[in-house]
Amino acid sequence: MTKTQEPVITSVADLPTSEAKWVTLQKISYIDQTGTPRTWEVASRKTRAASAGVDAVAMGNVLLHPARPPATLLVIQYRPPLDAYTVEWPAGLVDEGETAEQAAVREFREETGYACEVVGVSPVQAADPGLSSANMQLVMVEVRLGEEEALPEQRLEDGEHIQRVVVPLAELYDRLMEYSRRERTVVSAKLFHFAAGMHFAKTQAEKYGI
Amino acid sequence: MTKTQEPVITSVADLPTSEAKWVTLQKISYIDQTGTPRTWEVASRKTRAASAGVDAVAMGNVLLHPARPPATLLVIQYRPPLDAYTVEWPAGLVDEGETAEQAAVREFREETGYACEVVGVSPVQAADPGLSSANMQLVMVEVRLGEEEALPEQRLEDGEHIQRVVVPLAELYDRLMEYSRRERTVVSAKLFHFAAGMHFAKTQAEKYGI
């Protein structure tokens, strides 16, 4: 990433729903379980491809190197909605005509430079169900590395500035805690929850007999 | 939950930003790392309490019963944004003047009927960083149960219809996979990722040496 300056927000303005390209705001009227009419405000993506029926994929990934412990690649990028750098697994929107697996391989290649093998695809999950209709699938992928050191070249779209960080799997939770203490840095909830689940299983197994 | 009928959406209408009470749509103008001016569309909650600086809490919870394996309580509720029942950990918005811990204890009591003890509070996490400014903290809580069987009474707000399900921790991942196969049912990404992390740590420990 060529980082020449810290990103800065110059203005935040109400966006009329009619002018929004990517996101829309809708009022849902519905009849609840008791027969009572109610309403709910929802933010939706306008870009969901009909083919996959899912907005996005995130790639839980394991890098396997002949001489190093299994690791995972995280991406750090400036996210205007939070005015902060977020720490996430590589992720992206599913394009029209793609399956979740295809989107995962393509986006992983673009953001990380690596070719990957899909080893698992989760069911569709609700990204933030009280607020939005956005949904996603977690695609687990593996990358088999050679001995070479250097990270491959990314194929980023115009405007994408994505820093890659490789973290040993065994240190993932501690590293996310560390990132969370950094100024202007926030870990994404999905990645944090995965790491917290790993940490929970490892540290609480005896206490809870799991 | 008194469930007399399946919820049904009667209309979905564009919501002018000026009329929205809970959510707003904004256009952020910013200067990126290379000095290039760019814009981003963002959905934000209008309700963030200044005191905590965080929108919401979710309660990762462990129920400890004298005679049963450690379990966790999930809530299933109709979520209009997805027109589906979601499976989640209890969660709620942080009120003005509350800390995340206080909100967790209050919301857990309201949604589940149980008094709980907070055993851990996560850093602030970004709920869906490409789409919204929404953020949250994961608060881990424990509930010590007596021998009695019955679930305590909920204290739900008007319009809340929340079904509680108790799942042994060791079965969490499999149960979420099962729920994901049910019609009109979606698991929340945060809960699914936590369970997937637990499952990963348990099943891949040998393969990846973690």
From TrEMBL, chains A, B:
A Pfam match: NUDIX
Hydrolase as UniProt keyword: yes
Family: Belongs to the Nudix hydrolase family.
Domain of life: Eukaryota
Taxonomic path: Eukaryota, Fungi, Dikarya, Ascomycota, Pezizomycotina
Keywords associated with the record: Hydrolase
Start and end residues of each Nudix hydrolase domain: 54-192
GO biological process annotation, one example: ribose phosphate metabolic process
Protein name per its UniProtKB record: Nudix hydrolase domain-containing protein
Hydrolase listed as a keyword: yes
A GO cellular component entry from the record: nucleus
Gene Ontology molecular functions: ADP-ribose diphosphatase activity
InterPro entries the record matches: Nudix_hydrolase, NUDIX_hydrolase-like_dom_sf, NUDIX_hydrolase_CS, NUDIX_hydrolase_dom
